[in-house]
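Posting this for the archive.
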Amino acid sequence: MRIDIEKASDKLADDPRLTDYDFWRTLKNLNNEIFHIANNNDPIPLDMIRWRVIIKQARMKRGYG
């Protein structure tokens, strides 16, 4: 799975159609959704966690932390 995360984050980081705001907004939305799910004591889908990691890594590869 590590390779898939690396490939996906590389691909997103290199995509000129995505702005820095797109990364920030997506990450913010994912974090908010995960927070609401956790507050309801529901299980957090692994795909959401995986995409959060991918978006964070892509954002860091662009130079933003």
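Helices lie at 2-14, 20-39, 46-61. DSSP finds three helices and no strands in the chain.
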